[in-house]
């Protein structure tokens, strides 16, 4: 059970730190952290969570990562569903905390017709800069695929495990630097679902993309890693 609690708390930390920075710190005139700051915040949550909780659960904090680990043979089928449930619960709990805090501001209003409402992900009219559904699907799939490659490589038996958290955290930072303007960056179904529950509107109807594209990217990478990249002698 400890590994499931670790996934719960790790995903909670990711959503609280990443989405929280986007909600409260990104847009303050003159002193806001902007896209770069939000990208760093997401990377830092994974980096710190990986070192704190990775030894317990592996530090997935993302259903797509767990699916990629399962397909590549690093996670058993008995653990897959409990991992995903723990991650979803952690993300939703964190989004609930953010929701309570957000509504306490004097001028904060959630308008689900605007891009990036409640730090959620979207395409088309809900994309930060108007990217369509094809662009959104492709970037979410490709970036998730490479995220899983970095995770699998950094945690391989032949890799220096002391630096795995740094590599993974910096990879997620880079991913956000690329795709915040396109989709507000998901690569994590739990992160998207948790925010959409509270923002509602068309964000709910667009969730299919932010669930299917990361999962497909994870499955592809799991297969590629297992049959093309992994050293069977390691």
What does this structure look like?
There is one protein chain. The protein has one domain: Up-down Bundle (Glycerol uptake facilitator protein), CATH 1.20.1080. The model has no long low-confidence stretch (mean pLDDT 94). With 234 residues, the chain is mostly helical. The radius of gyration is 17 Å and the shape is globular. The protein contains nine helices and no strands. Helix 3 packs parallel to helix 9 (207-229) and helix 5 runs antiparallel to helix 6. Belongs to the MIP/aquaporin (TC 1.A.8) family. It comes from Myroides pelagicus. It is found in: Cell membrane. It holds the Pfam family MIP.
Topology overview:
Blueprint lengths: L1 H23 L9 H24 L5 H9 L5 H26 L30 H22 L9 H20 L5 H11 L2 H4 L1 H23 L5
Helix pairs in contact: 1-2, 1-4, 2-6, 3-4, 3-5, 3-9, 4-7, 5-6, 5-9, 7-9
Concise summary:
With 234 residues, this protein is mainly α.
CATH topology: Glycerol uptake facilitator protein
Q: Helix/strand/pairing class, anyone?
A: mainly alpha
Radius of gyration: 17 Å
> N- to C-terminal separation?
29 Å
The major β-sheet equals: none
> What is the N-to-C succession of helices and strands?
HHHHHHHHH
Oligomer: single chain
- Counting structural domains, the number is 1
Average pLDDT, rounded to a whole number, is 94
Measured as a percent range, the helix fraction is 55-70%
CATH superfamily: Glycerol uptake facilitator protein
- What is the CATH domain class? Mainly Alpha
Proportion of residues in β-strands: under 5%
Family: Belongs to the MIP/aquaporin (TC 1.A.8) family.
Main location: membrane
Keywords: Cell inner membrane, Cell membrane, Membrane, Repeat, Transmembrane, Transmembrane helix, Transport
Subcellular location: Cell membrane
């Amino acid at each position: 059970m400890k590994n499931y609690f670790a996934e719960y708390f790790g995903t909670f930390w990711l959503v609280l730190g990443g989405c929280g920075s986007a909600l409260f710190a990104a847009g303050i005139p003159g002193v806001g952290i902007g896209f770069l700051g939000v990208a760093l915040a997401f990377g830092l949550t994974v980096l710190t969570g990986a070192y704190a909780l990775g030894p317990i659960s592996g530090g997935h904090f993302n259903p797509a990562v767990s699916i990629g680990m399962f397909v590549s043979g690093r996670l058993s089928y008995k653990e897959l569903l409990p991992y995903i449930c723990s991650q979803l619960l952690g993300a939703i709990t964190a989004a609930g905390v953010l929701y309570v805090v957000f509504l306490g501001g004097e001028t904060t209003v959630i308008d689900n017709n605007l891009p990036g409402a409640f730090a959620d992900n979207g395409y088309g009219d809900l994309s930060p800069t108007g990217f369509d559904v094809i662009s959104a699907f492709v970037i979410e799939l490709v970036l998730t695929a490479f995220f899983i490659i970095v995770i699998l490589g950094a945690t391989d038996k032949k890799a220096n495990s002391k630096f795995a958290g740094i590599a993974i955290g910096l990879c997620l930072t880079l991913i956000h630097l690329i795709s915040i303007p396109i989709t507000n960056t998901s690569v994590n179904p739990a992160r998207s679902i948790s925010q959409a529950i509270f923002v509602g509107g068309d964000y709910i109807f667009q969730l299919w993309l932010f669930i299917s594209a990361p999962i497909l990217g994870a499955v592809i990478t799991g297969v590629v890693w297992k049959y093309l990249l992994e050293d069977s002698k390691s």
